[in-house]
Amino acid sequence: MTPVELSRTVLHAVRRAVDEGELAVAVVPERVVVAPPGPGGCGDYATNVALQLARPAGQPAPAVAEVLRTRLLHADGISDVVVTGPGFLNISLAGGSDARLVGDILRAGPRYGHSDALAGQTIELHAAPEVRALVLMDSVARVLRSQGARPQLHCTRPPEDAWVRVLGVPEDIRVRPGTAPLRPVPAPADPTPLGRDAARWALLHPAPHDRPRIGDEHLVQRESNPLFRVRYAHARSRAVVRNAADLGFGPEPGPVNASALHQALADHPRVLAATAAHRAPDRLARHLVAVADALAPLLPSVLPLGDEKPSAAHRARLALAEAAGTVLAGGLTLLGIDAPEHL
Q: Which region, left, alpha or beta, applies to residue 148 given φ > 0 means left and ψ of -120 to 50 means alpha?
């Protein structure tokens, strides 16, 4: 169960409690936020929805939490629910959820995390006539499309030819004025000498209100370069899949002790939704770095060593590595950056 699916499950429990008269709430929240539990929490995820509903329901938050806890215990994919602190719901997912997550990613491929949450919505984007603003608008549009929206791109003047040719800025941007344009801190120098991938990363990885650095640090192939870490992790994930095939075995989702990586992969749909909602590709860029860094410790143990025979553990680790590489490739594509299989 992904965080998005769990959020929907909790929201469904809230709605049923309201419909059946257990909670007297006039307005049900449109969404429920779930996140890893904080200090004092337990389980896989926690939510403060009971605290949000306590005042409207006219009940103490622990009482609201207990109502929801009883309902959630009967939901598929949930093994336990514990109420902690002033009324936090701490949710443990059923065993095997990590393997199911990996299977879901492998079945969805690079479209994992895509949804129809914004289906049918036409969203107008207006960019300031500056290279970083236009690259940011292009990436936001890609993520919006992944959530089902139909973005329309506008600027007060056409993009420069080099921005289209080198950086992949769409050339069919509509020329018209608009209100509240995307206006990040401008690039301090021309990013095109870096080439498409490094230039786009340099412009998108910092938050829009931060000043980007346009320098050769984005080209170096070492761990100090976040873009290199992301692309190298993807290339390594593809390499172990090829090497495993040469050894005669393939991926098979199963239990793997890699909680940080599982958490990062499960969080991918939420990150895409937040990136679309806040028009902030930096959230996706930082998330990809987190996935790559969580994948790195797993890679040396994916393939058998010496005379060791491939086991179920190797197949499970291979499946997890392939799933992580799939998320990295899909995320880089949404940023307009290539995900090479060899690096």
A: left
